[in-house]
């Protein structure tokens, strides 16, 4: 469906059952859940899908080791349930999107014998809570094995380690895959479409006045119910409904830095259980690079938060404590910052103590807001939101929720050896085949076919991203801007800003051909993407 067709369908007079505002994890999941139940569903996102928080995570699918520690220490049932739900949903996500998610072993280094029973007992409880959805048992490993699994570890004083398992995934591609799957279920989804105001009749919300940020066109989208799933921006949407409403969220910033692959083994991550200020730090392999994060500081809510120098220094300082390798800012290939939407608690001393659980509330005029949460539990949050919407707006779905066993696009007919099939059938390089297989799953042959038709060159010699992907994501994944392609569909800019900058001209040329851009539009894309690289992705 072209953008013109999408906007035409949004404008139709016949109201939707649900209009979802927000194209992050929660909004995309809600649109998929609603559409799969047979509800007439629309979704709008003011930027690109997952342009904010949902493409800037630590890329882990997890129950939350830190939350479990808080649950035990404070006998906090909310935190306990959050962990249990997260571990169940971790299993669901790995099953429904095997091309985007995988099991990852992690080592926790221990430099004091006193830490061994405490950390081991906590991770064993983590395993027990996972139940039948467990993905591997924790165990104590010797100093020798810890160093074998993670050779970069500082060996001096190392006593032992604990090995445990969590999930890892590609968050940006997960979001666009949810959108694509929702589209196949009948949802109409539009990125770069901003909600300007909520429309009311007789005091009840009946839709939203919106603007296409690419063309500037304004129009109305009618709906029987509106779901506010705007992540850190939910209070902005709530103020459209009630200007003086009290906020329900605070935000914290979390930055990540990306280093060359030599700083991490290819198949094992590192979990540092307690930094100088009591936080958890991860050093992970991700798409052939080392991903390190994260921080947790109170933050202002803005579209593109910038990483702060002191946050980068914080991460580098802690890496140096645990690595035998010297790491400086010159080794950083990319940095980004994201906002976490945290439920507001005036009594909490700091944002690290605010629960990542979610709440749902409905205003007097019918705005349904879902706020909080995290990527791992996006599906449960979406199910809860649609359940509430069905009751609140008196909707009649054709089916019950079944997203816990709904394969996402790319998971149908997925096979583990799909990369070998791509090598055999399309004569692709091994790293390119692996990249396409892990990014597109069973849809990868469509990309490979485009490569065979003349779009097979790499966008940068050091990376497996190829020209065919640009055409594919424009045609099938609603990529409308150069940044949509380079930051979120291929994630090249998240891995290597310099390489993304070098690839931008070729990406814009392919997009111009696909979307019939003129030179002024091409120049506008060059300028916008260059600005993103210099400021904040």
Automatic annotation (TrEMBL):
Cofactor(s) for this UniProt protein: FAD
Keywords, sorted A to Z: FAD, Flavoprotein, Oxidoreductase
Gene Ontology cellular component terms for the protein in this record: glycerol-3-phosphate dehydrogenase (FAD) complex
Gene Ontology biological process terms in this record: glycerol-3-phosphate metabolic process
Residue intervals of the Alpha-glycerophosphate oxidase C-terminal domain: 401-521
Keyword Oxidoreductase annotated: yes
Catalytic activity: a quinone + sn-glycerol 3-phosphate = dihydroxyacetone phosphate + a quinol
Molecular function terms, GO-annotated: glycerol-3-phosphate dehydrogenase (quinone) activity
The protein's name: Glycerol-3-phosphate dehydrogenase
Organism, as annotated: Geoalkalibacter subterraneus
């Amino acid at each position: 469906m072209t953008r013109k067709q999408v906007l035409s369908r949004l404008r139709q007079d016949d109201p939707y059952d649900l209009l979802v505002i927000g194209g992050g994890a929660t909004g995309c999941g809600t649109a998929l859940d609603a559409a799969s139940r047979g509800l007439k569903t629309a979704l709008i996102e003011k930027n690109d899908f997952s342009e904010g928080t949902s493409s800037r995570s630590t890329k882990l699918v997890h129950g939350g080791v830190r939350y479990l520690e808080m649950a035990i220490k404070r006998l906090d049932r909310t935190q306990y349930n959050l962990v249990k739900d997260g571990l169940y949903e971790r299993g669901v996500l790995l099953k429904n999107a095997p091309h985007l998610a995988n099991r990852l072993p992690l080592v926790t280094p221990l430099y004091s014998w006193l830490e061994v029973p405490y950390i081991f007992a906590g991770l064993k409880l983590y395993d027990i809570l996972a139940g039948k959805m467990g993905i591997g048992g924790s165990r104590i490993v010797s100093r020798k094995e810890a160093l074998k699994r993670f050779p970069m570890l500082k060996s001096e004083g190392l006593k032992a380690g604990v090995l445990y398992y969590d999930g890892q995934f590609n968050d940006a591609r997960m979001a666009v895959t949810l959108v694509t799957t929702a589209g196949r279920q009948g949802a109409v989804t539009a990125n770069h479409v901003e909600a300007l105001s909520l429309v009311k009749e007789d005091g009840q919300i009946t839709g939203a006045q919106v603007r296409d940020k690419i063309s500037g066109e304004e129009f109305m989208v009618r709906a029987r119910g509106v779901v506010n799933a705007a992540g850190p921006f939910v209070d902005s949407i709530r103020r459209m409904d009630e200007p003086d409403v009290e906020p329900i969220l605070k935000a914290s910033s979390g930055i990540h830095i990306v280093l060359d692959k030599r700083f991490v083994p290819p198949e094992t991550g590192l979990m540092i259980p307690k930094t100088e200020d009591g936080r958890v730090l991860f050093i992970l392999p991700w798409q052939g690079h080392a991903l390190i994060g994260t921080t947790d500081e109170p933050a202002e809510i803005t579209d593109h938060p910038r990483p702060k120098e002191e946050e980068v220094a914080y991460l580098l300082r802690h890496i140096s404590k645990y690595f035998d390798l010297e790491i400086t800012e010159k080794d950083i290939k990319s940095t980004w910052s994201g906002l976490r939407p945290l439920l507001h608690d005036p009594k909490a001393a700091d944002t690290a103590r605010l629960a990542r659980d979610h709440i749902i509330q409905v205003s007097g005029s019918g705005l349904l807001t879902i706020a909080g949460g995290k990527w791992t539990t996006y599906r449960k949050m979406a199910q809860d939101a649609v359940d509430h919407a069905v009751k609140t707006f008196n909707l009649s779905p054709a089916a019950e929720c079944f997203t816990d066993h709904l394969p996402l696009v790319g998971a149908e007919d997925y096979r583990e050896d799909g990369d070998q099939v791509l090598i055999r059938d399309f004569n692709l390089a091994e790293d390119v085949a692996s990249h396409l297989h892990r990014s597109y799953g069973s849809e990868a042959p469509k990309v490979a076919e485009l490569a065979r038709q003349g779009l097979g060159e790499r966008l940068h010699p050091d990376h497996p991203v190829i020209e065919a992907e640009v055409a594919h994501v424009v045609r099938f994944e609603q990529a409308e801007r150069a940044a949509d392609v380079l930051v979120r569909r291929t994630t090249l800019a998240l891995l290597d800003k310099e390489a993304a900058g070098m690839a931008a001209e070729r990406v814009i040329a392919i997009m111009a051909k696909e979307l019939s851009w003129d030179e002024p539009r091409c120049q506008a894309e060059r300028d916008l993407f260059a600005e993103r690289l210099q400021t904040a992705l």
